[in-house]
Write a structure and sequence with these properties.
34% helix, alpha/beta, globular, 3 domains, Diaminopimelate Epimerase, Chain A, domain 1, TIM Barrel, N-substituted formamide deformylase, Metal-dep_hydrolase_composite, five-stranded mixed β-sheet, hydrolase activity, acting on carbon-nitrogen (but not peptide) bonds
Length: 551
């Protein structure tokens, strides 16, 4: 990819340049055969053919020869924990540990390499994938760290193992709900220990982690992230410092959701004062399947009990009603079928109070929404709820021998993450990663939805791509972004990709088409095993926030 101008990319404080990109493939519904695009004042000004591009060449500040590269809208990741993602990128990440012994070796090496850290931080472990089939014990962690404080959340971040030294820093933790000697912490005990661990992070460490996460996102063609913060996840300083950093420095856009219950206008005003766009995100109705804390109608297949319910239908109704009255977007974290039933019952009650039209107009959202039934899917459609979902969950935990089947049994597991049924019902989808639970990987998420473990839940690559680009903007209430058409914000990414194809979602029909008569913009071949596209450049509001070296 070459440019007729050798001037460096403009920093965020300088004026916009008018740029013509040509000689590639531009993914745009305005012209399915587009090869060129003009960007002016931070917006798409024109999309069209190579021949028509000649008319613009002399009137722009810069001409970029795409050299056959693909231009798409930048991705939006609709569910991210930015600081935690950055800490995982720069700290102890156990997601690749193949055994418990290997994880303990990594803890030992990390402790030796960080002698000055007040609290050691890590994460990403998943005992379900280890041959030992058990979590690290406190005694093992005490030995591996030399008796230092260590906070080590499970991959889903709904439970954690810690050292004795960290427990000793949290007075009364052993009396809190969720504390069982020798077992991973859950509930209130987990939240208290997490707060203590994160409180040990200095502002400098936090800013470094946030920058690392946003730089990594930009390098993957992500132009926008939805930060999911809240008092049970991070803290107000973390949330506001991230929003400030994103405003002040060049990088992806950050929209913040703050997961705290709203009872009236005063609460809504405080949420807005934090800079949040909604009282949503990880406002927990339940927990996670991996930690046996997702709330189910029937018991788990591999453990007693039906999980944990943090909010009931009445709580949901009160929050949704208050947010709707205040003109604020509401939302919840809900995974289990019982939790999702509570959400839709609560939203129904709220609609009876404030009116269905106002509920639909507010575009309230639900994070994860995994154990849906035909009835709850129909309710999502009725109330205009956005399903903010993570296809990588199925890629990681789905299938006949995956964690879902272990927790629920094969029959219930096969109902999870029914993306095709959601789309058929008209439910808006917004894709994300829940990073650091699963990595930032937008093309991987599109592939995971197109090649879902359960055949009937698969959707086309085109629908999945839309959910990971335009879907995130629609979840914010914006219908004019996440798409390359004249007037849209110039948030785009440039990719090195092989032949473009049009993909059907079902193996029982022809999967690929390169016939130009289809009139459908093509996408890269996402067949498992095929290399994913490589991001060459990411642009946000017309300004470059990532450029791959030597490209």
């Amino acid at each position: 990819m070459s440019s007729a101008s050798s001037a460096p990319d403009a920093p965020a404080t300088t004026a916009h340049r008018t740029v013509l990109l040509r000689g590639g493939d531009v993914h745009s519904p305005a012209d399915p055969f587009a090869t060129a695009m003009v960007v002016e004042r931070g917006h798409v000004a024109w999309v069209g053919s190579e021949g028509a591009a000649d008319a613009f060449a002399s009137g722009v500040d810069e001409v970029v020869d795409l050299e056959g590269a693909l231009v798409t809208p930048a991705f939006t990741d609709a569910h991210v924990h930015t600081t935690a993602t950055g800490l995982a990128l720069t700290g102890l990440d156990l997601s690749s540990a193949r055994t418990l012994a290997e994880a303990l070796d990594a803890v030992r090496a990390h402790a030796a390499a960080r002698p000055d850290d007040r609290v050691l931080l890590g994460g990403g472990w998943d005992a379900a994938r280890w041959p030992e089939r058990r979590h690290p014990s406190p005694a093992e962690l005490d030995a591996a760290t030399g008796g230092r404080p260590l906070y080590l959340p499970r991959i889903d971040v709904h439970s954690a193992v810690v050292t004795t030294a960290l427990l000793d820093l949290v007075p009364g933790v052993r009396e809190l709900a969720g504390f069982r000697p020798g077992e991973p912490l859950t509930g209130a005990a987990h939240h208290a220990v997490r707060a203590a661990a994160h409180g040990a992070i200095t502002p400098r460490q936090r800013a470094e982690a946030q920058r690392a996460a946003l730089r990594h996102a930009a390098s993957l063609g992500i132009g926008t992230v939805h930060e999911c913060g809240g008092p049970d996840i991070s803290d107000e300083d973390d949330f506001t410092s991230l929003l400030a950093l994103a405003r002040e420095e060049s990088g992806p856009r950050v929209f913040g959701y703050w997961a705290e219950r709203v009872a009236g206008a005063k609460d809504a005003d405080r949420i807005r004062e934090l800079g949040a766009v909604g009282a949503a995100g990880d406002l927990f109705v339940d927990g996670s399947l991996g930690s046996h804390t997702a709330c189910l109608h029937a018991p788990y297949a591999d453990a007693p009990g039906t999980g944990t319910d943090h909010l009931d239908a009445a709580d949901v109704a009160d929050h949704v009603s208050a947010c709707t009255e205040a003109g604020l977007q509401a939302g919840f974290h809900a995974i289990g079928d019982a939790a999702l039933s509570a959400v839709v019952e609560g939203v129904r009650a709220a609609a009876e109070r404030v009116g269905l039209a106002r509920i639909r107009a507010a575009r309230h959202r639900v994070e994860h929404a995994e154990m849906l039934t035909p009835a709850t899917i129909a309710a999502f459609a009725e109330f205009g709820l956005t399903a903010s979902v993570q296809p990588a969950f199925d890629a990681l935990w789905g299938g006949e021998s995956g964690m879902y089947a272990e927790r629920l049994g094969a029959e219930r597991a096969a109902t999870l993450n029914p993306y095709a049924a959601l789309l058929r019902a008209g439910v808006p989808l917004a894709f994300g990663s829940d990073a650091p639970v699963t990595p930032l990987d937008p093309w991987g998420a599109v592939r995971a939805a197109a090649f879902h473990h359960t055949l009937e839940h698969r959707i086309s690559a085109r629908a999945a791509f839309t959910a990971h680009t335009r879907g995130g903007w629609r979840a914010l209430g914006r219908d004019d972004a996440g798409i390359l058409v004249p007037g849209a914000p110039a948030d785009y990414a440039v990719w090195r990709a092989e032949e473009l194809v049009v993909q059907a979602p079902d193996d029982r029909v022809a999967r690929w088409s390169t016939d130009p008569r289809s009139g459908t913009p093509g996408l890269p071949d996402l067949t498992p095993g095929v290399a994913l596209p490589v991001c060459l450049r990411t642009v946000v509001f017309g300004r470059t926030v990532f450029a791959r070296p030597n490209e």
